[in-house]
Structure formats: C-alpha cells, structure tokens
Amino acid sequence: MADSVSVKDLVNNIRLEVFHGEELLDQKQIKVSDISRPGLELTNYFKFYPRERVQLFGKTEISYAKDSMSSDDRLNTYRRMATVDTPAFVVSTGLPIPVELTQAAKENKVPILTSKLTTSRLLSNMTNYLEGQLAERESVHGELVEIYGLGVLITGDSGIGKSETALDLIKRGHRLIADDRVDVFQQDEQTLVGESPKILRHLLEIRGVGIIDVMNLFGAGSVKGHTDINLIVHLQNWDDETKFDRLGNGEEKRKFFDVEIPKITIPVRVGRNLGDIIEAAAMNFRAKNMGYDATKVFDDNLNELIKDNSTK
Fold first, then answer.
1. Residues 70-84: tens digit of each pLDDT
2. Residue 185 scores a pLDDT above 60
3. Which one from 180, 202, 224, 226 is the annotated catalytic residue?
4. pLDDT, tens digit, for every residue of 3-60?
5. Is 160 flagged in the annotation as binding?
6. Which residue from 55, 3, 1 is spatially nearest to 29, judged by alpha carbons?
7. What's the rounded Cα separation, in Å, for the pair 39 and 28?
8. pTM for the model
9. Could you confirm whether 53 is annotated as catalytic?
C-alpha cells in the first residue's frame, strides 16, 4: 500500500492540464482517496473542511461563487481553502479559472489543474485511481493472465510450470498481466484487482531460457497493466491418494481482504496440456456465470435416466 500519491502522478494518469504550479507537482502529495467538492466552504462554513483532500470545482461551485459572492469574499474564501495540506485545486468541464482562485493558489503554493471532463466523470476517474493506488495490497506468488476477458490467477508450488503455462496461453492470444508476483488490492466490495510490480511489468521468466520481454516478442496486444481477478486456478502435482473434483460441483473459494474468489484445483501430470485445460476452465466459468451449468445438466440427465429405468 502506498502512503501517498504525488499530484504529478494524478495529472499523468487522469490526463489533467496544469494551469498553475507545474513546479509543485512532485512536492504535493495526496494521502486520501476522497475528493472534496467545496460547497459549504463557499458559504464560509469551515468547521469540517477536509483540507487534506483534492478540491474539485464544477459548474455549481464556480457559478455560485461568481453570482453570490463579491470578489473580496471569493479571494478570502479561496485563501482559507488553500492550506499547506491541500494537494491541489481541480476545475472541471473546461470552465474559466477565477482570478481570485489563481491568486490564492499562487500565494499558498497550491497547484491548479483543469479538465474538459464533466464534474461527475472527473470525480469518478480520480476516486478510482486514488483508491487503487492507496489501497492495501497483498503480494501473491503466481501468474495473472487475462483469458477471454476473465482475469485468471494461476497459483501452485514453485517449479510446477506456472510460467510455462502462462507462456502457452500468451501464444494462444491471451494477455499477460503479471509473472511470478502479483500485487492484488480490493477496488470495491465485490472487485479484486491484480497488477504486476513495476520492475516485473511485461516480463516473464522461463527456466532454462531466462527472462523474456513478452511485449517485445508478442506485441502490445499480449500484455495488460491490470485486470479484475475472476478465477483462481491452482496447479497441484498428481497424487493417486488425493481426490480431485471430477464433476465440477466442489467449488472452493479464496478470500482476499473482503472479497471471495472462486478457486479450482487442476492436477498436473505428464502429458496433460495445461493451456487447453485452463482455457476450458475459463470458458466453463463464464458459461456458469451466464446461467449454463454443465454439472447441473449432467445431474438432470442422470436423474431422468434413473426415473426412466425405475418405471420399466
């Protein structure tokens, strides 16, 4: 989990324009993901002013200040808002920047950023980005591959063939998210996201070959920065004494933070093509989510057969 995000990172990732304070972007740090829309503050109520948040001005805030406040009142209010802890002022919808806001920002060294996006869209984009960056993270040993749009986390003991399986899936047209180490974080109540650490991004280690650059070898379409994790496939060495699920009705789950992810265990044995099996597992998982359950079809067919035989 990052303790803070620089305003420069926010600018680069949300594609904001810098109206004032280019030299301040590296210095200013954002420590909370919540965004403030300063409505009450414009009425001079500062008792609970969240000074540590990014302050977002939309049509409502800009119009109210212009129509209902004098120039001196606007300047005094903006000065109170521009504290040493305030990361940035952001103005949406391509609105003109009030001269009083610019003066207050310059006096107190607060950058002013702008965007042509609507206030609600910009608020959502900034919140999602900051929540992702500031969220608690867990590091998982495994491969994360996007298969037919599903994020599949492949886990298993070291040396069992996770990286080789990921390479096989990439050659089939699927996309690598992370090799060896996957950083996972909870985006919301139902969504778990995985990504690669920066040092390992787009790289894949194959024993006997070394490290390969997947994007360089297979093209930009073979990699992706992050994805939701929808399914965990655990690879386990074949053991005659271990009972593996044969019908698909013994679903396990693994919990990360507050999110439970479905998990299946696939036995590894010489001659089994894991790429084929994991592709089929991903398609079967998607079919179940769309309402088609092959296990239920089998059960229904079996019950029908028993019923037919019992009437003869």
1. 999 999 999 999 999
2. yes
3. 180
4. 899 999 999 999 999 999 999 999 999 999 999 999 999 999 999 999 999 999 999 9
5. yes
6. 3
7. 23
8. 0.73
9. no
Give the per-residue pLDDT at 188.
83
Enumerate domains of the chain plus CATH numbers.
Answer: 5-134 (3.40.1390.20), 138-298 (3.40.50.300)
Read off the pLDDT band of 1 (50, 70, 90).
low
Judge whether 180 counts as a catalytic residue: yes
Is 141 a catalytic site residue? yes
In the sheet with 150-156, reading across from the earlier edge strand, the strands are: 175-178, 143-147, 150-156, 231-237, 259-268, 252-256
The catalytically annotated residue of 28, 162, 174, 224 is: 162
The helix (run of H) or strand (run of E) holding residue 170 is helix 162-171
Tell me: is residue 162 an annotated ligand-binding position. Answer: yes
Q: Which pLDDT score, from 0 to 100, does residue 206 have?
A: 92
168 is catalytic: no
Q: How far apart are CA 108 and CA 24, in angstroms?
A: 11
Residue-wise DSSP of 192-234: EEEE--GGGTTEEEETTTEEEEHHHHH-GGGB-SEEE--EEEE
161 is in an annotated binding site: yes
